[in-house]
Amino acid sequence: MSPEPGLSPSTSSHASAAAGSAAAWAEDLANQDGVTSVSGALAAGLTWSEIRWKLASGRWQRPMHDVVVTHSGTPTYA
User: 34, 77 in Cβ contact below 8 A?
Assistant: First the structure.
């Protein structure tokens, strides 16, 4: 499968930085009410397949390009 339109496939190869950035990404998620970028999720070690599955299953939402909400509830706009 190819990456979603508008997002670079090269961002999915951040395996070497994934270990260090996963903890920072989790902290960012907590501080941002579960809102993050697709590229940030890829940098934290998630794969395109994982992201697509979470979106398709309704566990995550994608309100705009490169933005994901990592829960299925109503996003907050604070």
Answer: no
How far apart, in whole angstroms, are the C-alpha atoms of residue 9 and residue 48?
9
Please say whether the beta carbons of 36 and 70 come within 8 A.
yes
Helix, strand or coil, per DSSP, at residue 25? helix
Closest CA to 6 of 65, 47, 48: 65
Would you say the pTM of this structure is higher than 0.70?
A: no
Encode pLDDT of 31-46 as tens digits: 888 999 999 899 899 9
Q: Which residues contact 34 (CB under 8 A, 6 or more apart)?
A: 69, 70, 71
Show the CA angle centred on residue 19, arms to residues 76 and 45, nearest 5°.
Answer: 55
